[in-house]
Amino acid sequence: MNKKILIVDDSEELTDALGEYLSQSGFIISIAFDGEQMKQILQKTEHDLIILDVNLPGDDGFTLCAHIRQRSEIPIIMLTAASDEVDRVTGLEIGADDYVTKDFSPRELLARIKAIFRRVKMQGKSHLVHHIPFSGWCLDTVSRLLISPQQVTIKLSGSDYSLLSLFLNNRNIVLSRDEIAQKIWGRDIEPLERGIDVQISRLRSHFNDKQHKMIVTVRNEGYVFADND
User: Fold this and answer.
1) Is pLDDT larger for residue 51 or for residue 112?
2) pTM of the predicted protein model
3) Are residues 150 and 171 in the same domain?
4) Which domain, by its residues, includes 194?
5) Are residues 188 and 212 in the same domain?
6) Could you report the per-residue pLDDT of 86-99, keeping only the tens digit for each?
């Protein structure tokens, strides 16, 4: 079955061009020009991925991303200004799975989309193992719930789940930022890009790991998930 993608952007020129390109690549495309149209479409039809512009009339992309995350784990790719790193970081902090800048090429966006769908497919296979215990915590791979030692449950976003799964499959092994980006985004990071550090910070916040004892920063090398179980 062809994947359904919803493009949310107020530029008719961009949505027409991008919609045509992605349709030719085998996707079923819906288009919304603002948040209200987006909500109406999502109420009627389930989609597999949302491409969401930051700058929209009415509710902006950040508000809409947060709205979606309260209700769904559907993958979200944010469209941000080419020079605005704050927008890119903010999008990841509120639960976006990836971002592209407005100077993107359609081929680049298509590669990002395919990488996310590959990740979702691999996550489906992880359901063969229902519960993964570690350091007093537990990851439920079916519901994507992180369960604390006090039995408090935390719903993980798609990118948080991917990152934690990667660490659990590589416990006590140092992973570089490029290795992490390749696994969760399907691409290398760009020079000075902070996206991986933001994802790490989000995951640490779920563990209340303020001292960085569980996810340890290894200077000039990357990160290691320290699990003593």
Assistant:
1) 51
2) 0.70
3) yes
4) 129-225
5) yes
6) 777 788 888 898 88
